[in-house]
Amino acid sequence: MTERAGGVAVQTAHAGSGGGEGNRRRLTPPPRLRRPLAFVAALVIALAVMAVLFAVLGADPVKALRAMATGAFGTPYALNQTLQVASVLTMVAIAALIPFRAGVMNVGGEGQLAAGATAATVVVFTVGGGGGGLGVVLLAVAAAMIGAAVWAGLTGVLRAALGANEVIVGLMLNFLGALLAEWVIAGPWADTLAPQTRAFDEGTDLPQIPLLGGEFATALLVALAVSGLAWVLLDRSRFGFAVRVLGGNADAGLRAGISMRRMTVAVMLVGGAAAGLAASVQVFTVNHALIQNPAQGYGYTGIAVALLAGLRPRLVPLAAVLFAALTVGANSLPAVTGVSTSASLIVQGVFVICLIATGAITVRSRGAS
Amino acid sequence: MTGGATPLVTMRGISKSFGNLRANRDVDLTLYRGEVHSLLGENGAGKSTLMNILFGMYRPDTGRIEVDGTPVSFGSPRDALARGIGMVHQHFMLVPDFTVAENVALGGERRHRLGLRRTRVTAEVAELAERFGMHLDVRTPVRLLSVEQQQQVEILKLLYRGADLLILDEPTAVLGPVEIERLFVTLRRLCDAGRGVVIITHKLTEVLSVADRITVLRQGAVAATARSGELDRAGLALAMLGRELPALPARRPHPDAEPPTVLEVEGLSLPAGRSTKPLHDVRLRVSAGEIVGITGVEGNGQTELMRALSGLVTPSSGTVRLRGRDVTGISPRQLRAHGVGIVTDDRLRWDAVTEMSLEENLALVDVPAGRFSRFGLLRGGRMRVWARRLLDDHDVSPPDPQARMGALSGGNQQKVVIARELAHGPDLLLASHPVRGLDAGAADFVFRRIVELRDRGSGILLNSADLDELWAVADRVVVLNGGRVALEGRTEDLTIDQVAEAMTGGDVPSAVGRD
Ligand SMILES: Nc1ncnc2c1ncn2[C@@H]1O[C@H](COP(=O)(O)OP(=O)(O)OP(=O)(O)O)[C@@H](O)[C@H]1O
Ligand SMILES: [Mg+2]
Question: Would you list the DSSP string of A138-190?
Answer without folding.
Answer: HHHHHHHHHHHHHHHHHHHHHHHHH---HHHHHHHHHHHHHHHHHHHHTSTTB
